[in-house]
Amino acid sequence: MPRSPITCHVLDSSIGKPAAGVRVRLLVHRGAEIWESLDIGVTDTDGRCMDLLSPSDQRSEQSVKLEAGLYKIIFETKVYFDKAGKSTFYPWVEIPFTVINPNEHHHIPLLISPFSYTTYRGS
After folding, report:
1. Beta carbons within 8 Å of 29's beta carbon, 6+ residues apart
2. pTM across the whole model
């Protein structure tokens, strides 16, 4: 199955379950302080957002093509924890990352709790 070149997975470590319904924004750095929004998604019931960008074999003329450069993904964690009735120290988690080879898949897992988060480059 074709997949987006950038995907993510959010797990709520405070309950040991996927974090469904987390809004995710993908941006690319265009120089100086300029960040261009590329796409917005929401994690599914498994905590995954697999459709941030169109897979390369499904791109149209208007689709964004992944290029080498600096990107960031923003997870809106406050809204997620508010819905769960929990306060949180981090209203969002912003993860900058570098795409060196745009032909590789880039997966960004995020483990969250109301007062901490952890991330790494996934596969």
Report:
1. 35, 69, 70, 71, 72
2. 0.90
Q: Which of 47, 49, 29 is nearest to 106 (CA)?
A: 49
3-state secondary structure the chain: CCCCCEEEEEEECCCCEECCCCEEEEEEEEECCEEEEEEEEECCCCCEECCCCCCHHHCCCCCCCCCCEEEEEEECHHHHHHHCCCCCCCCCEEEEEEECCCCCCEEEEEEEECCEEEECCEC
Calculate the dihedral angle through the C-alpha atoms of 16, 76, 117, 64, rounding to the nearest 10 degrees.
100
> Tens of pLDDT along 20-53?
999 999 999 999 899 999 999 999 999 999 998 8
pLDDT (0 to 100) of residue 81: 98
- By CB atoms closer than 10 A (0-12, 13-18, 19+), residue 88 is buried
Q: Letter for the amino acid at 45?
A: T
